[in-house]
Amino acid sequence: MGIARPQVISKPLPPLPPAPPRPRRAPRKLGASAVKHLVLITVGAMFALPLAWMLLSSVKSAGQTLTFPVVWWPHPFVWDNYPRVLSSLPFGRFFLNTFLYCAVTIVGVCISSSLVAYGFSRLRWRGRNSLFYVMLMTLLLPFVCTLIPLFILYKHAGWIDSYLPLEVPTFFGSSVFSTFLLRQFFMTIPPSLSDAARVDGANEFYIYSRIILPLSKPAMASVILFQFIYCWNDFLGPLIYINTESKYPLSLGLALILGDYTTNWSWIMAAAAVATVPIVVLFFLTQRTFIQGIAITGQKG
Amino acid sequence: MSALTRRTAISRGPAPWLRRERPRLRGGRRVRIGLLFVSPWVLGFLVFYLYPFFATLYYSFTAFTGVGNPKLTGLANYSELFHDPLFRTALFNTFYYTALEVPLSTVVAIGLALLLNMNVRGRAFYRTLFYIPSIVPVVASSMIFVWIFQPSFGVVNSLLSDAHIQGPAWFFSIAWSKPTFVLLGLWGLGQPMVIYLAALQGVPREMYEVAALEGAGPIQRLRHVTLPMISPVILFNVIMSLVLSIQYFTQAQVIENPAGSPGTSTMFFVIYYYQQAFQDLHLGYASAMAFMLFILVLAVTIGLLKSSSGWVYYENEQQ
């Protein structure tokens, strides 16, 4: 999906440059530093407020969410909101559907994007760069420009109300971002490595699978991570193709909660937290992979 | 494959020193092996991009409901579009949102990246804090924003009333709905921010030192060193955020009930497209809209690229 992809492709963090030693500050510099901190703290509070408010609201009683001015600190903490909202809909199913969707597309992306990236980086052939630019241009094509014929095509194939319309394209290099990331990584591997193998009579598929892929584990880890986050967050794709509630992924299940419990804000926020917290925890656990990912995509080539 | 490779080992064609790389593979074979590797994408491109793109173009000249065959109607859909007031509203809303979102998110993302690039304590913490909202699932962030901007019990209006300001109805106000979506967009600008940060870190330190030696103040250094040096990244980010803003859909679809409300103030281009295509089954009409969107994105991108020679600085060209 053209629209959703760049949105959720989580560009990871670049490494910070080594901080130069702090010189002893003149008084004027101290003032400037105070201004910087004031700005950072203010903006930081604005960025943190929505998530903090989500967590606080999720453990308030219904009455505490419906006061004006607002009550800041929950009293008492109503942890019960979580089990109750989770049992109000088949969230177990939603999680399972989401994980399956993630798993299949991760397999698809890993296979097809690495093959395509190999062809776009480790081999030199006429037309390679032109085709590569065509691939990058598809990022600019609005998803609505292909949606109706694809929908009709999938309908004839009997794929509507299944994940196939979202899964099958990933086996055909639909994840331009992953292909680009892997290509950038493959280009950093010295060509002499492949040449040596060619002299020994290895064919290209052998070089791809036995030499390049084993060297590319860090890049593959980034691709897997980004694809997982993309699928976890994807709303538009399932909205278009999935109709039956028992087949919903988490994102569509959440939207149901918003529609069903329009005034029960503690439940709605508990549901939002259930979708958000795992992905934030995953981010903290894998920051290194994120950082490697952007370091790779940032390389010129 | 191994048989193929072995056969090419027999040297043919021009002398080895005339051929620059891969001495054992001739052009035609190299193209074949290259195409073999990229064939998954080529197939995907033909089936999932090229065919449906031209099919959309064809449907846009037809009346089509999805069953039976499309009936050719010439330019009827396009002339109907030009007389459709709701289409004009959708165009206006999309321009409104884009005109606010793209400049604001660019300025704020660069501003935050500049702050983070300075030598301040705790910048790794702030970088993580500013980045995290961009990985929050879009449905969850939409829910959170509906709640904090809730007119009667929301925390934002409560804070405003502490400052003796009567807050608006935000998502549920015709005047404020689009700016509130812009705020939601600004909250998730972590991706362009880290891209700008990476670009800032690529600016050679010596350039600042030279500028400082020549007496340039911080503002002059920003204008004459930093911004020109990161201008290619600005161009990239502006194009991406324009293309995304023009296709704005998901948040508006999740938040507004019915979609497009209050009034028609959040009837964005793709929201209207979605209703025409999937609710009213006006597939021909929706296809014409899709093609108009393509023209729009194309024009905006070409315009930006054309203008870029005036403001984007490429290091290699100048040297």
Structure notes:
The complex is a heterodimer of chains A (301) and B (319). Chain A starts with a helix and ends with a helix. With 301 residues, chain A is an all-alpha fold. Chain A has helices at 4-8, 27-58, 62-65, 81-88, 91-121, 128-137, 144-156, 164-167, 176-187, 191-199, 204-215, 217-233, 236-241, 250-260, 265-285, 287-297. Mean pLDDT of chain A is 87; it is low at 1-11. Chain A has one domain (83-297): MetI-like (MetI-like fold, Orthogonal Bundle), CATH 1.10.3720. Chain A is globular, with a radius of gyration of 24 Å. Chain B is globular. The chains are: A mainly alpha (301), B mainly alpha (319).
Helices and strands in order, then pairings?
The complex is a heterodimer of chains A (301) and B (319).
Chain A (H helix, E strand, L loop, with lengths): L3 H5 L18 H32 L3 H4 L15 H8 L2 H31 L6 H10 L6 H13 L7 H4 L8 H12 L3 H9 L4 H12 L1 H17 L2 H6 L8 H11 L4 H21 L1 H11 L4
Chain B lengths: L1 H7 L18 H33 L2 E2 L7 E2 L3 H8 L1 H33 L5 H9 L6 H11 L6 H8 L14 H11 L2 H12 L3 H9 L4 H29 L3 H6 L13 H11 L3 H29 L3 H4 L1
Antiparallel strand pairs in B: 1-2
